[in-house]
Structure formats: C-alpha cells, structure tokens
Amino acid sequence: MRFINLCFQIHQPYRLRTYRFFNIGHDHQYYDDYQNRHIIRRIADLSYIPANRLLLSLIREYGKTFKVSLSISGPVIEQLQQHAPEVINGFQELAATGCVEFIGETYSHSLASLGSREEFIRQVRKHHDRISDIFGQKPQTFRNTELIYTDQIGQIVADLGYSTMITEGAKHILGWKSPNFLYCSSVVPKLKLLLRNFRLSDDIIFRFSNQAWSEWPITTEKFVSWLNQMPSNEEVVNLFLNYETLGEQQRKETGIFDFFHYLPRTLFKRGKYTFSTPSAIAKALQPVAPISVQYPISWADEEKDLTAWLGNELQDEAFGKLYEIESTVMASDQDDIFRDWERLQTSDHFYYMCTKWFSAGEVHKYFNPYASPYEAFINYMNVLSDFMIRIQETGKVPVKETKPIRKAARKTTKPVPKKKPATSSKTSVNATKKTPRKTTKKS
Amino acid sequence: MQVLMFGWEFPPHITGGLGTACYGLIKGLIRHDVKVIFIVPKAYGDENPEGFRLVNASDVVMNFRETDYQQFWKNLTYLEIASNLIPYAGQEEFEELVERNTLEKLEESKSIFADRYEFSGKYGKDLMKEVSRYALVASSIASQTRFDLIHAHDWLTYPAGIAAKKISGKPLVVHVHATEFDRSGEHVNQLVYDIERQGMEQSDAVITVSNFTRQIVIDRYGIAPEKVYTVHNAVGPSLRPDLQGVMKHVKEKVVTFLGRVTYQKGPDYFVEAASKVYRKDPHVRFVMAGSGDLLNRMVRRIARLRMGTRFHFTGFLTGTEVDTMFAMSDVYVMPSVSEPFGISPLEAMHSNVPVVISKQSGVSEVLKHALKVDFWDIDAMADAIYGILHYEGLSKMFARFGKEEVENLKWENAAFNVVEVYKKAISGSLS
Questions:
Q1: What is the spatial distance between Cα A59 and Cα A326, in angstroms, rounded to a whole number?
Q2: What is the least distance, in Å, from the CA of A24 to any CA of chain B?
Q3: pLDDT digits (tens, 9 = 90+) for B171-207
Q4: What DSSP string describes A333-387?
Q5: Which strand (E) or helix (H) includes residue A114?
Q6: How many helices (H) and strands (E) does chain B have?
Q7: Which of A227, A313, A368, B336 is surrounded by the most beta carbons within 10 Å?
Q8: What is the rounded CA–CA span in Å between residue A390 and residue B342?
Q9: Pick from B250, B303, B325: CB nearest A313
Q10: B253 in helix, strand or coil?
Q11: What Rg value do the Cα atoms of chain A yield, rounded?
C-alpha cells in the first residue's frame, strides 16, 4: 500500500497600493483594497469554490480512502471572510467530513523563521489558534512558508509540539535518496519529515497545460503509470500544490478539475494506493533515515534556496529593516500596528523584489503588481518608512533606543545559524563521510 | 516685431526644462511688444497661450504636390536612417515611452504621407523622422505666415528653423539650452552633433543660456564668438501657490534632488553625499524625484548603503507634485555634471528652499546666495548639505536673500536681451 499525500496551500497576500513619498507621515492606508478584493473574488470564483465542491464530492464518493490536507494562511482567511465567506464555509464543510487535515504555518505567510525566532513562534501560535477556532482542529503537522526548512527551524517546530513537518525534496539535500519515504530530523528525531515530490507536483502546477511539453497531455492513466513505475518499496508520494492550480493557474478548460475528479478512481483501479494525511502517514510509517539541512531550502525555482525572497541588495535591505524594528513593534502594543507588522512580513513582498526575472519570469510575474523589482522595493520602503514613524509616535519606545535594538535583533537572528553547527555539524560530517565511503566501495 | 518660434514642448506637457523656459521667454517678449507664433509638434489643448498664438504642427495641412516640399523631404530623408536615436530619454525610459505610445505610433505610421501628420510631441522612437517632418511642416507654415524673424529652441527644432529660413529668407536665431556634450559627456551622438552644428552655422545669431554653454559653442562647434550671445534664463513670476509648511508630514529635514536621473544630472554624487550626511545625522530624509536610465542603479546603491527607509524615490513629478516637493524640502541639491543653465534651483529658491548647486552649471554664474561645489566633490557637497540643515543662520539667510535674488531674475529682462539679439540679427542679415 502506497500513500498519496495530497496537500494544498491556500494563500493570497495583502498587496500594497502605490504608496508614495508624499504619503509618508500622514496616510496609513497601505493596501490596495480594490485590487485585493478583485483578486480574491476572482480566485474564489475560478478556483476555491469549484475546488471545494470537487473535494467534497470526492470525499463523499470514496469515504475514508480519499483524504487531503490544507494549509491556509492568515491573510487569505481574513480576505476570504471579508470578500468571499462562502469559501470559508466550504472549508468548514470539508473539515466536518473528518477527511481533511489542516496544516499549521506562520500566520502571515512570513519569512519570520529567518528573521526572528520570537516572531516566528508568535506567528505559529497565532495561526494554530486561528485554525482551531475556525475549523475545530488543532494542527499536528507544520509547513513553513515556502516550505523553508533548516535543522534549527525543525527544532523550534518540534519544541512547539508538532510531530510532522513538510518540506521540499530538494535534490542537493537528498542526493541519491528518494523523497518518497518518511524521514526524520537529524536534530530532533521525533520530528517526522515528509518531502515534496517536486517533479510530480510541478508537472501539475506548471506543466499541466503546457502543450510544448513532450508529456502533454497528462491523463490520470499516464500519471498513475508514472507512480507505478516507481520502485515498489517507495511508501509515500507527497504532492504539494497551490490550491489556485485548480482553476486559476490551470484554467477549468485545461481539464484540471476532471483530472482530479478521475485521479482517485484510476489510482484505486491501477494499483495499491490510498490517500492519507501527513500526521496519519507519519504514524503509519517508520522513518528510513535522518535528514540534515544546514542551509535553508525552499520549494522555489531550480535552486530550491532562498534567492527568490532574499539575497539581492533590495531584498536584504527591506528584510533587514523590517526585523530591526521588531522589539519596538512589540513594545507599541497596538492592534493596528500589529496587524500591519504581520502583513508587511508576508513573503510575497520580497518575492516581488526578486531580480531573477529571466530564469523564472513566468512564475514570478504571477499576480505581481509591479513592473520591476525596483518599483516593488521603492513602494515597500515608503510604506515601511511610514510604519516606522507610527511606531515612534506611539511613544512607547524612545527614538534613541533604536540602536541597541538593532543590535539585539541581529543577535536574535544570528543564534539560529550559531546553534546549527553546534548540534548538526556532527551528523552532517558523518553523512558526508558515509556517502563517499559507499561509493568507493562500490567502485 | 513678429517672431516665428519653434519649440518642442510647452507647459504643462514637459519632459525637461525647455518647455518652461520657452513659456517664460514668450511671456517676457510679449512685454516688449514682440508678437510670437509658437509652433509645437503637438498641442494637447490645455496649454495657456495668453497673448500669443500657439500652433499645433499636427493641425497644419500640407500639400505634398508642391515641389519645394518634396525637395525638402528628399534633403531630409537621410535623417530617417537613425530612427532609434534618443536625445533626452535614456535607453530604458525610451523603451517605456515607445511601449506607451505603441498605439499612437501605429496610427502615425499610417498617416506619414497623409495630408496631416500627427506628432507625438515626445522624445521617443522615430525621433529623427519626427524632427524632419517637423521641418517639413515648418516650411509650410513659413510660406503661409508673415513674420520678421525665426527663433528655434534646441536641436530638435533647428531643421525646422533652417527650413523656414530657406523658404522665407528671414533671419534665424537659434537658442542653445543644452548641447550634445551636456547630455552625453564625451560620447556624443554624431548625428545630433551635426544637426546642432548645422543649425548654429546657418543661423544669424546664437543665444546660449550661460557663458558656460557659450564657451562650448565656441570651442566645440567652432562658431564665431561675435555671433554668440549669452542670455541667462530667468524664473517666472511665481505661478506656484505658497505651500510652505502646509504639506509636510515628516518630522525630519528633507534633502531633495529633482531632475532626470541621468549621467548629466549627477545623481550618483547626490547619493554618495547623502550617505555621508546620513552617517553623521540619521534624522534626515533624502528624496530623488525624477526618472531616467540611472534610476535602477541608484535604487540598488541605496539598498546596499542600507538607507532604504531614509532615501525615497518618487518617480517623475509634474505640476503641483513639484510644488509639493519643494514645499517639503529643506535643501535642494543640483549636482549636475554639466548643466547649461539649470532652472530648477531658481524654482527651489522661489519656494524659500536653500540650494546647493554644482559649479559646472550656468545658473551658478548668476546666483550669489547659493552654495556652490564641484559636482565630483562629494565631501564638500555633504558638508554644504549638513551646514544648511544644522546652522539655522545659514538656511535663514539663504532663504531670505535667495528669494529676493531670484525675484530679480525676470524673464522680462532676459527677453529684453533677446530682443537686442533679434535686432542685431535683423540688421546683420540685411547688410
């Protein structure tokens, strides 16, 4: 019996409006309400609503053999509640079937795991609470924003009580290993790791309707035959997709809904498969090996690293400035400041500043409101400048204290890498030593 | 006296200082009883032609059967070869303009040989074609209108001026607001240079906006010094509402750069000087208003200097936005590498903003109450900015005397000098 772990992420950011220098200091409305409402409404109609309907009908048809998991971000929940509450109702209906697992993440789809340990923990807890409030389910499984993972992040997540985590099956981490097994963290072995099968997942997300692709069209028969060709001992296939793939990125006319409608039937007919959820799979299987990740991995592009969000001058400046003010934000203790602080952390803002246009332009341009990364940066920094003035004006923290805070914030981010080598260096050294030995023996 | 004047732009539709200068000059000339027919490639309809005629070249009907015009067209066709020239716009800006105008362009290319030609009125694609077509229209206007003298502003209109002179036999005055050496440094565009030189050679008199530019015209274009006259620009009676203290929403002092973000304007020196000031005093905000081919490089540099929340970019500003920007500013910096005149510091001073200007500018010849530094001397520039920000005596004095000084730079006076040049040109061409 092989498990199919079908996960969807549902996320839409609060896009910023054109916020100019002239607005700084008196205008605190940062968001493009019209655009955000328009986009959320459009995606709800094209994707979320029909997709919810499809999942519900599959669960009703196949009972306990069809299961999915959903990872829903805070910003999209808020926006759906405001502009498309029927989608939230749909998720609640799905929750009631008992065949859907809700996955934990950072509340505002943020990169806090890389910026501040405290903020990361705060956001994970907040998301946890919000999900349990709305869907009556306490998340057992965690997925970080953009599937970003390191040993340290795994450690924090395990400390927060999560048993399972989903991340990318990045080639440079796995080497010769297959993503289609259950693994565990090398630092905290009780934390089970499920690794996304990016080839099969991306076949659907990016290539489903690509007629220039040699494998087009993907039918359920073809897809299942690929699964059948896998070595028979492989235990789990982790498909992790954007929910918008259903109907938005891949339009209804491409046959995407039909594909998912027939997928369970073909799977059950052609082989021994069952759909399951991450925490159930983690209980059912034994981890085959520990995985050590020293440098952050993600699910983005070819590189599977952070370069889509961080690394160029623009991104580093924006990100650095944002987390420098963390302690002043906390001291302010005002709801509207907390709200904007969270929304400004959403990873999409940094994604818009990415300069890797030529390699991944198509993907990066998806709902990107800016003509260039430079415009994205200028606009974001203007908003951030106003935000910083507001915090100062709360008077909770004197202006002069910004300097020591800056240093403190950097320290909080640094311990993460510092702790890494202390705990994981041994395991990673072992791992690197082991693999060459094996190959030399073989040769 | 009736003057046929060729311009390329007119407020409020401007991409550089040329339009503003033309407007001021015309207003001044009217006071000296000079009648002006001002020709622009494209009128938008919301200009304010008080006391003179604004002719939209797009509205002029041409008859191509007349051999004269066909002859002229032949003479100018060589210009079409380099239709990718970009005089004011940098490469990126240029592409933007072209994209923005795609639809417009399509229509135009259809109507090349139609009776009426629609000018886009912008610096962009097919510029050379537009320049030559403008000249064609000019000859048509020149044959249908009565006037005593032709006045052409900057190289884009020189072919038009020459054409009008050939048709009418009237004297030509060319007005040099900028040269190719200002725009491109030593890497001049030969085609543009040739047009400039031809215009100056065929003219009866050349007006330069500063001695700085006059020297370039004499040295680099080989024009006889006795026909080159300097007439410094002025600044219009303030059309700008007094917005002082009303629009500012940030507590910190604001240091502003306003202009095209191109090599000529020296934005990189401003950025470096800003970082020096910022290191000394973090409670300052810097603004770079304008766009251009160096903009993205400036943004990257600011990010690397970690000044993202203190250094802001506004993009290109127009009309009231410029007023607001001045009203919010505490220091205005013009670090131009080569500036024939530079009218913007005068506008800043008019709004009571003290200015730091580069010595490589024409305006530094006429201003006393301004701090002058070499454009490359970022230490001196930072020092000047810091001084104005922190020593109240300095800023107060500059604001008070600066405004007075600028108010004495009247277009009426500049126009008087222009009329003197007209008289010399007319008498010279008669003799």
A1: 43
A2: 7
A3: 999 999 989 888 877 888 888 899 999 999 999 999 9
A4: --HHHHHHHHHHHBHHHHHTT---HHHHHHHHTTT---SSHHHHHHHHHHHHHHH
A5: helix A112-115
A6: 16, 13
A7: B336
A8: 38
A9: B303
A10: strand
A11: 22
Q: How many CA atoms lie within 13 A of A90 on its CB side?
A: 22
Residue A351: closest CA among A300, A400, A401, A303: A300
B96 pLDDT more than 70: no
Burial of A437 (0-12, 13-18, 19+ CB in 10 A): exposed
Q: Identify the sign of the CA torsion A209, A369, B92, B267.
A: negative
- With a cut of 50, say whether residue B102 has pLDDT above it: no
Span A335-348, average pLDDT: 96
Label residue A360 by pLDDT band (50, 70, 90).
very low
Instruction: Give Rg (Cα) of chain B.
Output: 22
For residue B78, the model assigns a pLDDT of 28
Instruction: Give the dihedral sign, CA A184/A186/A191/A195.
Output: negative
* Shortest distance, CA B280 to any CA of chain A (angstroms): 14
CA dist., res. A420 & res. A39, Å (int): 40
User: CA nearest B154: which of B180, B121, B187?
Assistant: B180
Q: Which strand (E) or helix (H) includes residue A195?
A: strand A192-196
Q: Does A429 touch chain B (CB under 8 A)?
A: no
- Sheet hosting strand A141-143, strand order edge to edge: A141-143, A164-168, A192-196, A182-185, A289-291
Helix A151-159 to helix A415-442 angle, to the nearest 10 degrees? 120
Q: How confident is the model at residue A331 (pLDDT cuts 50, 70, 90)?
A: very high
Q: How many residues does chain A have?
A: 443
Distance from CA of A356 to the nearest CA of B (A): 15
Exactly one of A78, A101, A105, A146 is catalytic; name it.
A146
What's at A189, amino acid-wise?
Answer: P
Residue A152 to residue B46: CA distance in whole angstroms: 63
The single residue listed with the structure tokens 């400390």 is A159
Q: Is the pLDDT of residue A373 over 70?
A: yes
For a pLDDT cut of 90, what percent of chain A falls above it?
Answer: 77
Contact A5, A237 (CB under 8 A): yes
Residues of B in contact with A314 (CB under 8 A): 299-300, 303
Confirm whether A146 is a catalytic residue: yes
- Tokens (6 digits) for A51: 């997709």
| d(C-alpha B411, C-alpha B19), whole Å | 14
User: Helix (H, G, I), strand (E, B), or coil: what is residue A16?
Assistant: strand
Q: How far apart are CA B324 and CA B256, in angstroms?
A: 12
Record: contact A381-B296, CB cut-off 8 A: no
Structure tokens at B128: 């050379």
> Quick check: B250 and A24 CB within 8 A?
yes
Interval A247-257: pLDDT, tens:
999 999 999 99
Cα separations in angstroms, A220 against A284, A402, B263: 26, 57, 59
The contacts of residue A412 (CB under 8 Å, 6+ apart) are A116, A117, A118, A326
Q: Which of A18, A21, A26 should one mutate to test binding to chain B, selecting the residue with the greatest count of B CBs within 10 A?
A: A21
What is the number of CB-based contacts under 8 A between chain A and chain B?
65
Of A24, A314, A388, the CB nearest to B299: A314
SS3 B366: coil
Q: Tell the residue number behind the tokens 């494998």, with chain if given.
A: A215
Of A146, A145, A135, A50, give the one whose Cα is nearest residue A99.
Answer: A135
Contacts of B160 (CB under 8 A, 6+ apart): B6, B39, B131, B134, B135, B137, B138, B152
Bridge pairing between strands B355-358 and B331-334: parallel
For residue B44, give both structure tokens.
Answer: 């938008």
pLDDT of residue B247: 66
